[in-house]
Amino acid sequence: MSTLTQQIYQRANELGFELVGITPAAQSETIERYQRWIENGYAGKMGYLKRHLPLKTDVRQLLSEAKSVISLAINYYTLDPPKALAEDPTRGQISRYAWGDDYHDVIRQRLAELIDFIKQTAEAELKTRICVDTAPIIEREYAQKAGLGWIGKNTNLIHWRSGSWYFLAEVLINITLEADTPSVRGSCGTCTRCIEACPTDAIIEPNVLDSRLCISYLTIELKGGIPKALRPKIGNLIFGCDICQEVCPWNSKAVSTDEPAFQPRAENFAPKLLSLMGMTQQEFSRRFKGSPIKRTKRRGFLRNVLVAIGNWGDRRAVPALKAALSDDETLVRSHAAWALGRIGSDTAKQILQTRLTVETEQEVITEIQDALLETAQPSQRSKNNA
């Protein structure tokens, strides 16, 4: 291994990237499979994935001078929430990756420092491109080729020693670096725990995820209403989902990161559902400043919280739901109506009937009408109201 390559590995490790690998900048070997995935509709409403398809055919579409791809992974695993908290229907569950600071900001800063180091070390004019999650690159393919792990049946990259709680990133660079060609150690074997554990059956076959069924997609990427048939299956997950990683045997080897930025913020760790209701836009922006949760915007986040409250189904939520039924956002009002229908008490029914007389948006009117039908079916009501 050349001295420069060794120095890049060492500096990347010092910056917190536990896994590092290098491959030549070349055309994607999985682009046809990815294109079929999109053509099958599995990307849902993420239209940008189709728009970015031409860029993903070759990393040199992003940096024409690219000679090498440095693939990196940084651990974000911190702890497992107590079972009592995770199963408490009065609390919302947020995906681990969003407990702390926005990883995009953290990783971009580290990659910038790595590039500064290479500029000082390499005897060449440097041209680079940083890629962090949102860049149009099939990053798991390059990470697997670089020996960072294999792509598991749940479509996550898994490392044999430490599991899958990793953020991935890449640096495209116009220097020919010594490439890694390691044999990938480990595999999923015959294990299908992730497929069996998914509440919505989103992993339709090994290594194939239908985003339209995935709770992470439904609670983060989807901007409109969550399909009614899927709402009861979401439980108390209000931002993302970790189930397919939590059940993975390889993650039993996970070691906690000491990165301060990824440590849980108190307000993001199993928050009380009712404490999240009634947030103004200013309060939402202040509470989730510098957090990945801001991606959903206030209306999307409250939509998720309302689904969780509907699944909780307790009458104590009725006052908060009544207020949400008058929210400025159509998306919030429609899901508040659904949650009231799930509770199904006489008070909930009366609130729905009153709102129906003044509601003007057809989307909400339909939700209220369906919710009133729900209140008329006692067998559908929550056991909390039996």
What does this molecule look like?
The protein is of the alpha+beta class and 386 residues long. Among the domains are: 3-78 and 101-173, no CATH class; 273-386, Leucine-rich Repeat Variant (Alpha Horseshoe). It contains 18 helices and 10 strands. The strands form 4 sheets. The protein has a 4-stranded antiparallel beta sheet, with helices on both faces. Strands 3-10 form a two-stranded parallel ribbon. A two-stranded antiparallel sheet has the order 5-6. Strand 8 and strand 9 (208-209) form a beta hairpin. Helix 14 (297-312) packs parallel to helix 16, helix 16 (330-343) packs antiparallel against helix 17 and helix 17 packs antiparallel against helix 18 (362-375). The N and C termini lie far apart (69 Å). The model is unreliable at 379-386 (pLDDT under 50).
In short:
The chain has 386 residues and is α+β, with helices and mostly antiparallel strands. It has helices at 3-14, 31-39, 47-51, 53-56, 83-86, 103-121, 139-145, 193-197, 215-221, 231-234, 243-246, 273-276, 281-287, 297-312, 318-324, 330-343, 346-356, 362-375, and strands at residues 19-24, 68-75, 93-94, 128-131, 150-151, 157-158, 166-173, 203-205, 208-209, 237-239.
